[in-house]
From TrEMBL:
Entry protein name: SCO0930 family lipoprotein
A UniProt-annotated Pfam family: Lipoprotein_15
Superkingdom to which the source organism belongs: Bacteria
Signal sequence segment: 1-24
Keywords per UniProt: Lipoprotein, Signal
InterPro entries, alphabetized: Lipoprotein_repeat, SCO0930-like
Extent of Polar residues compositional bias: 34-47
Organism taxonomic ancestry: Bacteria, Bacillati, Actinomycetota, Actinomycetes, Kitasatosporales
Compositionally biased spans, kind Low complexity: 62-71, 178-189
Region (Disordered): 27-71, 164-209
């Protein structure tokens, strides 16, 4: 039973050229702007436009967008299905959009999109009791109005939510998700600890994020919580890989990850490497990155130091624990 508690595209050609030059090779492409994650059923949630309906805006809300309603003091809804969800003072679910950005904050929902997903104005909003007040902020929209942000993510309501506790917007189009009190996507099991799925693996993680390892310090992990590695024989300037053929069976590449689907990772040089073998590989600071087949579960670092050439990766893309 749900309980309530008050705890509360385009990159310019110049930018692409700059990244290409920095990485020293021609086959570099921008990471995808977003990717569909969550529990939306593609058969039920059309995602052609990323808004979740055939017309591209989540739902046909009809008419004009409602006048913005202040959020007031935020609260936290402890949902069995979704985990901790941030709500406005009336108990209506607040959402985030994968096609927005949090660093820097920017809303990409305008026009008809904002009819289906009314923006939450920044004025009069305060943090839920017991939550981090510094996570509350604002962003200037194209029309000059200020929109509430949580953890940098612009906040919205969903036009089809008609009662407190509704969360009909969850997973729409694979891009709309209920927001947690820290601005991340709400996920079961997130309250007070790691987010785990039924198999015991971290759930709700960004495509790439940072984990504090007790021995190595801050290291990068993928969306499954698996440690990410670099190979000393690779090169970033120019970008080259020395892991080919059978090596890739042991050290699978990290596939492309959207910049917006990262948490704490250096975004400069965060580009996709089109390898000579046709495989597309994510890089950090232009360095190709991998996982290790010998890591059986999240938290394993069995690849650390293998052959004196494989090491975990820091959030800045550096080798962790490698000899000087």
């Amino acid at each position: 039973m749900n309980t309530w508690r008050n705890v509360s595209f385009a990159v310019t050609a110049a930018a692409v050229m700059a990244l290409t030059t920095a990485c020293g090779q021609d086959k570099v492409t921008e990471s995808p702007d977003s990717r569909s994650v969550g529990n939306a059923n593609p058969a039920q949630q059309p995602a052609d436009s990323g808004y979740g309906s055939d017309t591209g805006y989540g739902e046909d809300s009809g008419g004009q967008p409602a006048a913005p309603r202040a959020a007031g003091q935020l609260a936290v809804w402890d949902s069995e299905k979704l985990g901790e969800v941030v709500t406005d003072s009336r108990g209506f679910t607040l959402y985030r959009f994968d096609k927005d950005t949090a660093d820097p904050p920017k809303s990409n929902c305008e026009g008809d999109c904002a009819k289906a997903w009314p923006v939450v104005p920044a004025g009069g909003a305060t943090a839920a009791p017991g939550t981090d007040g510094s996570a509350i902020g604002e962003v200037a929209r194209a029309d000059g109005t200020k929109q509430l942000t949580v953890g940098g993510w612009p906040m919205y309501r969903f036009a089809k939510d008609t009662e407190p506790g509704d969360a009909k917007g969850q997973g729409v189009g694979g891009t709309w998700f209920a927001a947690a009190p820290d601005g991340k996507k709400a996920a079961p099991g997130a309250a007070g600890g790691a987010r785990d799925d039924d198999a015991g693996n971290p759930a709700g993680l960004a495509g790439m994020s940072v984990r504090e390892d007790p021995e190595l310090g801050d290291i990068v992990v993928d969306s499954k919580g698996m440690t990410v590695y670099r190979f000393k024989k690779d090169s970033a300037w120019p970008m080259k890989t020395a892991c080919t053929g059978a090596c890739l069976d042991k050290w699978p590449v990290v596939p492309p990850v959207g910049k917006n689907d990262t948490d704490g990772i250096l975004k400069k040089g965060f580009v996709v490497f089109d390898r000579p073998d046709g495989v597309r590989q994510q890089t950090i600071d232009c360095w190709p990155v991998y996982t290790f087949s010998g890591d059986a579960k999240p938290g394993d670092t069995n690849g650390q130091g293998v052959g004196g050439t494989w090491y975990a990766v820091s959030p800045e893309g550096k080798l962790v624990g490698a000899p000087a």
